[in-house]
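Lab notes, practical 5.
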Amino acid sequence: MQKLKYNGWTNYETWNFKLWADNDEPTYKKVQSLIKEVLNTRGVTICSKSKTDLAVALLSHSLRELAHNEAPELKANFYSDVIMTSIKEVNFDEIAKSLLED
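Output from the prediction step:
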């Protein structure tokens, strides 16, 4: 089954994560901190395709960790399965690329 795009993003889950990353102040601050960490602390300067790819990969990984770390702890049940499945559907590479382009 092919997933449909949602508001220009890969899917609803990706759009929803980016929406919260941009509009929820605590999440926005965490995401901005991750961007600064990727660009400064890790010494990544975006000036070539390979360095851009590295920055996207690093930020994507950090965003995925953020999503997993911020997920509420639920006992194993239907709702915890739905939440974790939804997080797995997020296209973190697409979000990272968009954030680094801004």
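Observations recorded by the TA: DSSP finds five helices and no strands in the chain. Residues 24-41+64-102 form one domain.
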